[in-house]
Design goal:
Layout lengths: L3 H9 L6 H15 L6 E5 L6 H12 L13 E5 L11 H12 L21 H14 L4 E5 L12 H16 L2 E6 L1 H8 L8 E5 L7 H15 L15 H8 L3 H18 L5 H7 L3 H20 L5 H8 L8 H4 L33
Helix pairs in contact: 1-10, 2-3, 4-5, 9-10, 10-11
Protein backbone atom coordinates (compact mmCIF):
# COMPACT_ATOMS: atom_id res chain seq x y z
CA UNK A 1 0.00 0.00 0.00
CA UNK A 2 1.34 3.41 -0.97
CA UNK A 3 1.68 5.93 1.85
CA UNK A 4 1.09 9.13 -0.11
CA UNK A 5 1.40 11.42 2.93
CA UNK A 6 4.87 10.21 3.88
CA UNK A 7 6.04 10.44 0.27
CA UNK A 8 4.81 14.05 0.05
CA UNK A 9 6.67 14.95 3.25
CA UNK A 10 9.82 13.34 1.90
CA UNK A 11 9.59 15.31 -1.35
CA UNK A 12 9.05 18.57 0.52
CA UNK A 13 12.23 18.08 2.54
CA UNK A 14 14.28 16.38 -0.16
CA UNK A 15 17.70 17.94 -0.71
CA UNK A 16 18.97 17.40 -4.24
CA UNK A 17 22.48 18.75 -4.70
CA UNK A 18 22.24 19.11 -8.46
CA UNK A 19 25.05 20.72 -10.50
CA UNK A 20 23.65 24.25 -10.85
CA UNK A 21 22.70 24.27 -7.18
CA UNK A 22 26.20 23.22 -6.09
CA UNK A 23 27.94 25.70 -8.37
CA UNK A 24 25.73 28.63 -7.33
CA UNK A 25 25.93 27.72 -3.63
CA UNK A 26 29.73 27.75 -3.69
CA UNK A 27 29.87 31.10 -5.48
CA UNK A 28 27.23 32.75 -3.29
CA UNK A 29 28.83 31.54 -0.07
CA UNK A 30 32.25 32.80 -1.17
CA UNK A 31 30.86 36.23 -2.09
CA UNK A 32 28.96 36.56 1.20
CA UNK A 33 31.65 35.18 3.50
CA UNK A 34 34.34 37.44 2.01
CA UNK A 35 32.17 40.55 1.71
CA UNK A 36 33.21 43.68 3.56
CA UNK A 37 30.89 45.25 6.17
CA UNK A 38 28.26 47.37 4.47
CA UNK A 39 28.50 45.51 1.16
CA UNK A 40 25.42 44.19 -0.66
CA UNK A 41 25.27 40.74 -2.28
CA UNK A 42 22.29 39.93 -4.51
CA UNK A 43 21.29 36.39 -5.46
CA UNK A 44 18.96 36.70 -8.44
CA UNK A 45 17.22 34.04 -10.51
CA UNK A 46 13.90 32.87 -11.90
CA UNK A 47 11.10 31.81 -9.58
CA UNK A 48 11.13 28.35 -7.98
CA UNK A 49 14.82 27.51 -8.37
CA UNK A 50 15.66 27.29 -4.65
CA UNK A 51 16.85 30.78 -3.69
CA UNK A 52 15.11 30.77 -0.29
CA UNK A 53 16.44 27.32 0.58
CA UNK A 54 19.93 28.40 -0.43
CA UNK A 55 19.72 31.42 1.91
CA UNK A 56 18.94 29.15 4.87
CA UNK A 57 21.83 26.83 4.05
CA UNK A 58 24.30 29.70 3.65
CA UNK A 59 23.16 31.14 6.97
CA UNK A 60 23.90 27.78 8.57
CA UNK A 61 27.32 27.59 6.88
CA UNK A 62 28.27 31.00 8.27
CA UNK A 63 27.71 29.84 11.87
CA UNK A 64 29.97 27.75 14.04
CA UNK A 65 29.19 24.00 14.14
CA UNK A 66 26.18 23.22 16.33
CA UNK A 67 24.64 26.71 16.11
CA UNK A 68 21.35 26.90 14.23
CA UNK A 69 20.15 29.83 12.19
CA UNK A 70 17.54 30.74 14.82
CA UNK A 71 19.98 30.47 17.71
CA UNK A 72 20.73 33.74 19.55
CA UNK A 73 24.43 33.15 18.79
CA UNK A 74 23.78 32.97 15.06
CA UNK A 75 25.73 35.52 13.03
CA UNK A 76 22.77 36.33 10.82
CA UNK A 77 19.05 37.00 10.85
CA UNK A 78 16.63 36.48 8.02
CA UNK A 79 13.38 38.25 7.14
CA UNK A 80 11.08 38.27 4.15
CA UNK A 81 10.13 41.46 2.34
CA UNK A 82 6.37 41.12 2.08
CA UNK A 83 3.64 43.45 0.87
CA UNK A 84 1.59 44.14 3.98
CA UNK A 85 0.52 47.72 3.43
CA UNK A 86 -2.64 49.16 1.87
CA UNK A 87 -3.58 47.61 -1.48
CA UNK A 88 -0.67 45.18 -1.26
CA UNK A 89 2.04 47.85 -1.20
CA UNK A 90 5.41 47.36 0.48
CA UNK A 91 5.64 48.85 3.98
CA UNK A 92 8.98 50.01 5.36
CA UNK A 93 7.47 50.13 8.85
CA UNK A 94 6.36 46.52 8.69
CA UNK A 95 9.79 45.51 7.40
CA UNK A 96 11.60 47.31 10.25
CA UNK A 97 9.24 45.71 12.74
CA UNK A 98 9.97 42.24 11.32
CA UNK A 99 13.71 42.75 11.80
CA UNK A 100 13.14 43.96 15.36
CA UNK A 101 11.00 40.90 16.08
CA UNK A 102 13.70 38.63 14.64
CA UNK A 103 16.20 40.31 16.94
CA UNK A 104 13.82 39.81 19.90
CA UNK A 105 14.35 43.43 20.79
CA UNK A 106 12.78 44.65 24.06
CA UNK A 107 10.78 47.23 22.09
CA UNK A 108 8.52 44.35 21.04
CA UNK A 109 7.33 43.55 24.54
CA UNK A 110 5.58 40.26 25.12
CA UNK A 111 1.92 40.27 25.99
CA UNK A 112 0.21 38.32 28.74
CA UNK A 113 0.04 35.33 26.38
CA UNK A 114 3.81 35.37 25.83
CA UNK A 115 3.34 36.02 22.12
CA UNK A 116 6.51 37.77 20.91
CA UNK A 117 4.72 38.82 17.73
CA UNK A 118 2.08 40.81 19.62
CA UNK A 119 3.38 44.14 20.92
CA UNK A 120 1.69 45.74 23.88
CA UNK A 121 1.62 49.07 22.03
CA UNK A 122 2.25 50.38 18.54
CA UNK A 123 5.55 52.19 18.05
CA UNK A 124 6.37 54.70 15.35
CA UNK A 125 8.33 53.72 12.27
CA UNK A 126 11.26 55.81 13.43
CA UNK A 127 11.36 53.94 16.72
CA UNK A 128 11.49 50.58 14.91
CA UNK A 129 14.33 51.74 12.65
CA UNK A 130 16.28 53.09 15.60
CA UNK A 131 15.83 49.79 17.45
CA UNK A 132 16.97 47.97 14.29
CA UNK A 133 20.14 50.04 13.94
CA UNK A 134 21.04 49.59 17.60
CA UNK A 135 19.92 45.98 17.87
CA UNK A 136 21.95 44.49 15.00
CA UNK A 137 25.42 45.30 16.39
CA UNK A 138 24.28 44.72 19.98
CA UNK A 139 23.16 41.19 19.09
CA UNK A 140 26.44 40.48 17.26
CA UNK A 141 24.79 40.08 13.86
CA UNK A 142 27.08 40.35 10.87
CA UNK A 143 24.66 39.38 8.07
CA UNK A 144 21.11 40.49 7.25
CA UNK A 145 19.33 38.20 4.77
CA UNK A 146 16.23 39.61 3.03
CA UNK A 147 14.22 37.10 1.01
CA UNK A 148 11.70 37.98 -1.74
CA UNK A 149 13.39 41.36 -2.03
CA UNK A 150 11.74 42.03 -5.40
CA UNK A 151 8.58 42.98 -3.46
CA UNK A 152 10.08 46.42 -2.86
CA UNK A 153 8.99 47.20 -6.42
CA UNK A 154 5.50 47.57 -4.89
CA UNK A 155 6.65 50.39 -2.63
CA UNK A 156 4.73 53.64 -2.98
CA UNK A 157 6.24 56.64 -4.68
CA UNK A 158 7.79 57.44 -8.02
CA UNK A 159 11.06 55.76 -7.09
CA UNK A 160 9.83 53.80 -4.09
CA UNK A 161 12.03 50.76 -4.73
CA UNK A 162 15.16 52.89 -5.09
CA UNK A 163 14.37 54.75 -1.87
CA UNK A 164 13.94 51.48 0.06
CA UNK A 165 17.26 50.17 -1.27
CA UNK A 166 18.98 53.39 -0.28
CA UNK A 167 17.58 53.02 3.25
CA UNK A 168 18.74 49.39 3.46
CA UNK A 169 22.19 50.35 2.27
CA UNK A 170 22.46 53.10 4.90
CA UNK A 171 21.48 50.61 7.62
CA UNK A 172 24.13 48.17 6.39
CA UNK A 173 26.80 50.86 6.49
CA UNK A 174 25.76 52.21 9.90
CA UNK A 175 25.57 48.77 11.53
CA UNK A 176 28.47 47.12 9.68
CA UNK A 177 26.44 44.14 8.46
CA UNK A 178 26.58 42.46 5.06
CA UNK A 179 23.25 42.85 3.28
CA UNK A 180 22.16 39.74 1.34
CA UNK A 181 19.18 40.13 -0.99
CA UNK A 182 17.47 37.26 -2.81
CA UNK A 183 14.79 37.71 -5.42
CA UNK A 184 13.65 37.34 -8.99
CA UNK A 185 14.92 39.25 -12.00
CA UNK A 186 12.65 42.14 -11.04
CA UNK A 187 15.08 42.91 -8.22
CA UNK A 188 17.86 43.59 -10.74
CA UNK A 189 15.74 46.29 -12.36
CA UNK A 190 15.10 47.90 -8.98
CA UNK A 191 18.82 47.87 -8.16
CA UNK A 192 19.52 50.04 -11.21
CA UNK A 193 17.24 52.76 -9.80
CA UNK A 194 19.31 53.11 -6.62
CA UNK A 195 22.31 55.37 -7.18
CA UNK A 196 23.46 54.59 -3.65
CA UNK A 197 24.02 50.97 -4.70
CA UNK A 198 26.40 51.78 -7.55
CA UNK A 199 29.79 50.25 -6.83
CA UNK A 200 28.58 48.69 -3.59
CA UNK A 201 26.83 45.57 -4.83
CA UNK A 202 27.72 42.24 -6.38
CA UNK A 203 25.41 39.84 -8.18
CA UNK A 204 25.18 36.05 -8.14
CA UNK A 205 23.01 34.59 -10.88
CA UNK A 206 21.05 31.46 -9.92
CA UNK A 207 19.93 30.23 -13.35
CA UNK A 208 17.54 27.51 -14.42
CA UNK A 209 18.52 24.46 -16.45
CA UNK A 210 18.84 25.38 -20.10
CA UNK A 211 19.11 23.35 -23.29
CA UNK A 212 22.83 22.65 -23.19
CA UNK A 213 24.68 19.37 -22.97
CA UNK A 214 25.82 20.01 -19.39
CA UNK A 215 22.44 21.27 -18.18
CA UNK A 216 20.55 18.38 -19.79
CA UNK A 217 22.80 15.96 -17.95
CA UNK A 218 22.08 17.78 -14.69
CA UNK A 219 18.34 17.75 -15.34
CA UNK A 220 18.48 14.00 -15.99
CA UNK A 221 20.23 13.48 -12.65
CA UNK A 222 17.36 15.29 -10.91
CA UNK A 223 14.77 13.08 -12.61
CA UNK A 224 16.64 9.94 -11.60
CA UNK A 225 16.72 11.14 -8.00
CA UNK A 226 12.94 11.56 -7.93
CA UNK A 227 12.52 8.04 -9.34
CA UNK A 228 13.86 6.66 -6.08
CA UNK A 229 11.11 8.36 -4.05
CA UNK A 230 8.01 8.54 -6.25
CA UNK A 231 5.60 5.63 -6.85
CA UNK A 232 5.71 5.52 -10.64
CA UNK A 233 3.66 3.38 -12.96
CA UNK A 234 5.51 0.88 -15.22
CA UNK A 235 5.16 3.23 -18.18
CA UNK A 236 7.24 5.85 -16.33
CA UNK A 237 10.00 3.58 -15.06
CA UNK A 238 12.25 4.88 -17.84
CA UNK A 239 11.59 8.48 -16.87
CA UNK A 240 14.43 9.81 -19.02
CA UNK A 241 12.34 8.95 -22.07
CA UNK A 242 9.94 11.72 -20.95
CA UNK A 243 12.64 14.25 -20.03
CA UNK A 244 11.70 16.62 -22.85
CA UNK A 245 8.06 16.56 -21.76
CA UNK A 246 9.01 17.17 -18.11
CA UNK A 247 11.41 19.94 -19.07
CA UNK A 248 8.82 21.81 -21.12
CA UNK A 249 6.35 21.63 -18.22
CA UNK A 250 8.87 22.83 -15.63
CA UNK A 251 10.92 25.26 -17.78
CA UNK A 252 14.06 23.81 -16.24
CA UNK A 253 13.19 25.08 -12.73
CA UNK A 254 13.49 22.39 -10.07
CA UNK A 255 10.86 24.09 -7.89
CA UNK A 256 8.28 23.90 -10.67
CA UNK A 257 9.22 20.27 -11.27
CA UNK A 258 8.77 19.47 -7.57
CA UNK A 259 5.37 21.18 -7.53
CA UNK A 260 4.36 19.17 -10.60
CA UNK A 261 5.35 15.85 -9.06
CA UNK A 262 3.61 16.72 -5.78
CA UNK A 263 0.36 17.58 -7.56
CA UNK A 264 0.62 14.43 -9.66
CA UNK A 265 1.02 12.46 -6.44
CA UNK A 266 -2.25 13.98 -5.22
CA UNK A 267 -4.04 12.96 -8.41
CA UNK A 268 -2.68 9.43 -8.03
CA UNK A 269 -3.82 9.37 -4.41
CA UNK A 270 -7.41 10.08 -5.46
CA UNK A 271 -7.36 7.03 -7.75
CA UNK A 272 -5.27 4.98 -5.29
CA UNK A 273 -2.74 4.19 -7.99
CA UNK A 274 0.89 5.02 -8.87
CA UNK A 275 1.76 8.15 -10.82
CA UNK A 276 1.11 7.61 -14.51
CA UNK A 277 1.02 9.82 -17.58
CA UNK A 278 -2.58 10.73 -16.89
CA UNK A 279 -1.71 12.05 -13.44
CA UNK A 280 1.15 14.08 -14.88
CA UNK A 281 -0.98 15.55 -17.65
CA UNK A 282 -3.79 16.51 -15.26
CA UNK A 283 -1.39 18.32 -12.92
CA UNK A 284 0.70 20.05 -15.59
CA UNK A 285 0.59 23.84 -15.54
CA UNK A 286 -1.53 25.37 -18.27
CA UNK A 287 0.19 26.63 -21.40
CA UNK A 288 -0.78 30.24 -20.66
CA UNK A 289 0.92 30.24 -17.25
CA UNK A 290 4.01 28.55 -18.67
CA UNK A 291 4.21 31.05 -21.53
CA UNK A 292 3.99 34.03 -19.16
CA UNK A 293 6.60 32.56 -16.82
CA UNK A 294 8.93 31.69 -19.69
CA UNK A 295 8.66 35.19 -21.13
CA UNK A 296 9.61 36.67 -17.76
CA UNK A 297 12.54 34.27 -17.39
CA UNK A 298 13.91 34.93 -20.88
CA UNK A 299 13.65 38.69 -20.37
CA UNK A 300 15.54 38.34 -17.09
CA UNK A 301 18.25 36.16 -18.62
CA UNK A 302 18.77 38.63 -21.45
CA UNK A 303 18.96 41.47 -18.94
CA UNK A 304 21.58 39.65 -16.88
CA UNK A 305 23.58 38.88 -20.00
CA UNK A 306 23.40 42.52 -21.13
CA UNK A 307 24.73 43.58 -17.71
CA UNK A 308 27.68 41.21 -18.01
CA UNK A 309 26.40 38.91 -15.23
CA UNK A 310 26.27 35.80 -17.37
CA UNK A 311 26.87 32.36 -15.92
CA UNK A 312 28.99 29.73 -17.69
CA UNK A 313 25.84 27.76 -18.47
CA UNK A 314 24.20 30.81 -20.00
CA UNK A 315 27.23 31.53 -22.18
CA UNK A 316 27.25 27.97 -23.50
CA UNK A 317 23.54 28.16 -24.21
CA UNK A 318 24.02 31.39 -26.13
CA UNK A 319 26.71 29.82 -28.30
CA UNK A 320 24.52 26.88 -29.25
CA UNK A 321 21.35 28.90 -29.72
CA UNK A 322 19.75 28.24 -33.09
CA UNK A 323 19.03 31.31 -35.21
CA UNK A 324 15.39 32.21 -35.61
CA UNK A 325 13.78 32.40 -39.01
CA UNK A 326 13.64 35.93 -40.39
CA UNK A 327 11.11 37.05 -42.99
CA UNK A 328 12.10 38.84 -46.16
CA UNK A 329 10.61 42.08 -44.92
CA UNK A 330 12.65 41.90 -41.70
CA UNK A 331 15.85 40.87 -43.49
CA UNK A 332 15.77 43.73 -45.97
CA UNK A 333 18.24 46.42 -45.03
CA UNK A 334 17.15 50.04 -45.08
CA UNK A 335 19.51 52.92 -45.60
CA UNK A 336 19.67 55.23 -42.63
CA UNK A 337 17.81 58.49 -43.09
CA UNK A 338 20.05 61.49 -43.57
CA UNK A 339 19.55 64.05 -40.82
CA UNK A 340 17.92 67.27 -41.94
CA UNK A 341 19.64 70.61 -41.61
CA UNK A 342 18.10 73.68 -40.05
CA UNK A 343 15.68 74.16 -37.17
CA UNK A 344 12.93 71.60 -36.46
CA UNK A 345 9.39 72.41 -37.68
CA UNK A 346 10.71 75.38 -39.69
CA UNK A 347 10.71 75.18 -43.47
CA UNK A 348 13.99 75.84 -45.15
CA UNK A 349 13.74 79.12 -47.12
CA UNK A 350 13.96 78.84 -50.91
CA UNK A 351 15.41 81.67 -53.03
CA UNK A 352 13.50 82.10 -56.27
CA UNK A 353 14.50 84.22 -59.22
CA UNK A 354 12.16 86.44 -61.22
CA UNK A 355 9.78 84.51 -63.43
CA UNK A 356 9.83 81.37 -61.26
CA UNK A 357 7.13 82.33 -58.81
CA UNK A 358 4.64 79.72 -57.68
CA UNK A 359 1.08 80.32 -58.97
CA UNK A 360 -1.14 81.79 -56.29
CA UNK A 361 1.60 83.71 -54.48
CA UNK A 362 0.79 87.32 -53.73
CA UNK A 363 3.65 89.80 -53.94
CA UNK A 364 3.39 93.26 -52.64
Amino acid sequence: MINYTDIAKTINTLDINHPIWTRTLELAYARIALAAPGQVVCVIGPPRVGKSRMSSIIRSMLNLPGIGIDDPQSLSIGVRASNCSTNGAFSTKDFARKVVVALKHPIVATSSRDDTHTPTRQETEGAYWLALERGLPAAGKRYLFIDEAQNICRAKGRNGAGSVLDAWKCVAEDTGVVLVLTGTYELHTAMQNSTHMLGRKSFVHFPRYRVTREDIWGFHSILQTYVGYLPLAPELENILAYSEYLYSGSLGCIGLLERWFRDALGNAMVRNSPIDLRALEESRACDTDLAITLEEIIAGEEMMAASGIETPALKVATQFKEPEAVSKEQSSTKKPRKPRDGKPFVCKPVRRTAGERVPGEVHV
